[in-house]
Amino acid sequence: MTDGSVHVEFRGVSKRYGETVQAVRQLDLEIMRGEFLTLLGPSGSGKTTALMMLAGFEDATEGEILVDGRRIDNVPANRRGIGMVFQNYALFPHMTVAENLAFPLEVRKLGRGEVADRVRNVLDMVQLPGFGNRRPAQLSGGQQQRIAVARALIFEPKLVLMDEPLGALDKQLREQMQFEIKDIHARLGVTFVYVTHDQTEALTMSDRIAVFSAGRIQQLSTPRELYERPQASFVASFVGENNRMAGTVEAVDADGGLSVRLDDGGGRLGAMSYGRSFPPGARVLLSVRPERIALVQDGASAPNEVAATVLQSVYVGDHLRLIAGAANGQKFIVKLASTPSLPTPEPGAAIRLGWRREDCLALDP
Ligand SMILES: Nc1ncnc2c1ncn2[C@@H]1O[C@H](COP(=O)(O)OP(=O)(O)OP(=O)(O)O)[C@@H](O)[C@H]1O
Ligand SMILES: [Mg+2]
User: Fold this and answer.
1) Could you say which of 3.30.70.640, 3.20.20.300, 2.60.40.150, 2.40.50.140 is the CATH number of the domain covering 243-363?
2) Residues of the chain with CATH 3.40.50.300
3) Whole-angstrom Cα distance, residue 244 to residue 241?
4) What is the largest CA-CA distance in the chain?
5) Is 137 helix (H, G, I), strand (E, B) or coil?
6) What is the third-level CATH fold of 6-238?
7) How far apart are CA 53 and CA 80, in angstroms?
8) Distance, CA 266 to ligand 1 centroid (Å)?
9) Positive/negative CA dihedral, 86, 74, 22, 223
10) 52 ligand 1 Cβ < 6 A
11) Is any atom of ligand 1 closer than 6 Å to the C-beta of 232?
12) 177 within 8 A of 169, measured Cβ to Cβ
């Protein structure tokens, strides 16, 4: 819940590393008090750099950053009162959970009774009461992550930064933690700035999402606006439903296109890496949007083709939603524009799915 006032402001902030790397370019961004704002974008787009400048671990090359209307350039990181969670939990392995949690408080010279109270409260908050005497190695990945969240919150910061905090967790735990963090945010009412490259995570958790690409914000919107009204093709391709196929790079064309052998005899597809570099032998995840897949008519062909069987066919008003299965077990979601003349493929029908190589994006697995 935001009260409508600006908490954090980036004004024309740029960051260069050396002569060549421009990590953040002319960033203008207002973050509202109490907001859950997510920086979403591909690898190398400048999300961490933006967060590190706000936290005080990197200096801006140009521009200014304001918190509560005051420039913070000259305030050292440990005086900014900002809670942080990093991707690698960064718990101290030789300390117990309770000692890890107490650390930010001892730095701030709180009394022993107060420290013990807060440690207990924050362990309750992340639903790990009684875990104070364990060491990090005696916790699961998800539990360690919750302790890292607890440690960022224990000194009651008004601003909390989280950089890919769930990156190392499996899908189920990730989804559970997404709701737990969202719930903590709602209860505390403080400002969260969250970094992820996972669009589903961003859509699930955020009040607003800033989509980063190459050091710039491409779009700043609510999750709904972002999905319904992408303003750039980059955003459209980054946010939305995807069909994903695992495979191995066989060859790299002169134009950067990849020839990818799908797992489990799924055939070979052409894909684009769009700037990411995948040498032959690299594992990739291919991604194609449901609405970019078409049915290949008899006698026609498509650059990428997969033979499949219709499993389910649902009329959804503006489109027809097909679930189709390939011989290797790969399932596809396909959205076909619904026109009166379109024959409806029935379950059990043999079809060919086709799409362009340009619509087939190669991602890191
Ligand atoms: N200390 C550094 N020295 C030089 N270049 C750096 C440094 N840190 C980051 N960069 C470069 O700055 C750019 C932005 O990096 P940044 O870490 O902010 O990206 P990111 O959006 O967090 O990416 P990821 O999703 O991979 O974490 C990249 O091109 C990166 O290589
Ligand atoms: Mg990063």
Assistant:
1) 2.40.50.140
2) 6-238
3) 10
4) 79
5) helix
6) Rossmann fold (3.40.50)
7) 11
8) 35
9) positive
10) no
11) no
12) yes
Q: Which atom of ligand 1 is nearest to the CA of 41?
A: 21
**Going residue by residue through the chain (365 aa), what tens digit of pLDDT does each one get?**
678 899 999 999 999 999 899 999 999 999 999 999 999 999 999 999 999 999 999 999 999 999 999 999 889 888 888 999 986 657 888 999 999 999 889 878 888 999 999 999 999 888 899 999 999 999 988 889 889 989 998 988 999 999 998 887 788 878 888 998 998 899 989 999 999 999 989 999 999 999 999 999 988 999 987 766 556 556 766 887 778 889 999 999 888 899 999 998 888 999 988 666 889 999 988 888 898 899 999 999 999 999 999 999 998 887 899 999 998 889 999 999 877 776 778 999 999 999 999 888 887 76
Atom of ligand 1 minimally distant from the CA of 49: 18
As given in the structure block, the two tokens for residue 39 are: 């920086």
State if residue 49 touches ligand 1 by the CB under 6 angstroms criterion: yes
- Ligand 1 atom nearest to CA at 58: 1
Does any ligand 1 atom lie closer than 6 A to the CB of residue 104?
A: no
Q: What is the pLDDT of residues 307-317, one digit of tens each?
A: 999 999 998 88
Q: Which residues contact 15 (CB under 8 A, 6 or more apart)?
A: 22, 23, 24, 46, 49, 50, 53, 58, 60, 61, 215
Report the residue among 13, 14, 21 best suited for mutation to probe ligand 1: largest number of ligand atoms under 8 A from its CB: 21
C-beta of 43 in contact with ligand 1 (< 6 A): yes
Task: State in Å: Cα 197 to ligand 2 middle.
Answer: 9
Report which bound ligand comes closest to the CA of 44. 1
Query: Is 118 touching ligand 1 by the criterion CB < 6 Å?
Result: no
Between CA 102 and CA 318 the distance in angstroms is 55
Q: How far is the CA of 111 from the centre of ligand 2 (A)?
A: 36
Q: Where in the chain is the domain with CATH 2.40.50.140?
A: 243-363
Digit-coded pLDDT (tens) for 296-309:
999 999 999 999 99
**Ligand of minimum distance to the alpha carbon of 52:** 1
Ligand 1 pocket check for 179: Cβ under 6 Å: no
